[in-house]
Structure formats: C-alpha cells, structure tokens
Amino acid sequence: MAKESGQKVIASNRKARHDYTILDTYEAGVVLVGTEVKSLRAGRASLVDSFATVDDGEIWLRGLHIPEYTHGTWTNHEPRRTRKLLLHKKEILRLIGKTKESGTSLVPLSMYFKDGKVKVELALARGRKAHDKRQAIAKRDADREIQKVMGRAAKRGTGARR
To answer: Carries keyword Cytoplasm (predicted)?
Structure first.
C-alpha cells in the first residue's frame, strides 16, 4: 500500500478565526478507531462547537462530530465521543500553563491528513468581544480596498509604458 504524501484538509473551523484572537497554534495527532478514519477519508467531519480541554495532564478534544461510517456494522463508533490528542510533553505543559490564564481556550482550527495520519491544528485563543469583531472586519475591508487600488495602479503603470 502506497503512503500518502502532502496534506488533505478534512474540515476547517472558519468561524473560530472570527470569534477568537489566535495567540498560538499547535499540530496534534488524534487517537481514532477504524470506522472514524474511514468516515474521515470520505471527508465527513464537523469542527463546529468543538473545543479541547486539559484533564490529568492530557489534552482531550470534545464536541468533534465524525458521523458513523455508512458501511460500518455493530463496531461503528459514537459520533461525538471524546478523543485524545497527541502532543509532546513540553507542548502539553506549556498549554496547561497558558490555559490557566483567564480568557484563553483551546480551539481546533482545522483537521487534515498529513502523510496518511489525521492531524488537528489546535489554537490557543482568546475570545473576542463584539466590538473587536467589528474592528477586525473593518481592518480587513480596508486592507482589501488598499490592495484593490494598488492592483489597479500597477495595471495602469504597466499599460502606459508601451
């Protein structure tokens, strides 16, 4: 069996980047059972409402929805079970220290296959208030407008030199 190479995104949590300020990101492996992997290979997963917690020195992913495998039998998995995340001990200790700070939480940003293994991009994030969200949207729109104007100027500049 040939080994996969590269990355294939399974699911992404686009709303997390809107609701949180991302402070730091980590790549973590996920402990899964066979039918979960088969369901993920079909591209079926939802990171909405999922989050990570620290329990007894381990990181656990909660609320991740992986639907039951359609061709599975009685051995099928539970769709919203708690799954263990695999990180280095130093990273876990750093996350334990940082999550004890008020207002920070662990949020999964995306789930993907990397060299045939399922990985989760986990973010240490701080929740945004409504006015912060409005400021972020206004800044993004202003940056887009600047890029648009600069693009037009660049096009005009090259066209006039004939």
So the answer is: yes
Same structural domain for residues 140 and 78? no
User: Is there a domain that residue 24 lies in?
Assistant: yes
User: Helix (H, G, I), strand (E, B), or coil: what is residue 18?
Assistant: helix
**Token match 């280095």: residue?**
88
pLDDT digits (tens, 9 = 90+) for 32-72: 887 888 888 888 788 888 888 888 889 999 988 888 877 76
Domain that holds residue 75: 7-128
Look at residues 86, 105, 96 and name the one whose alpha carbon lies nearest to residue 31. Answer: 86
Count of CB atoms within 10 A of residue 153's CB? 10
Residues 91 and 41 in one domain: yes
Residue 13 lies in a domain: yes
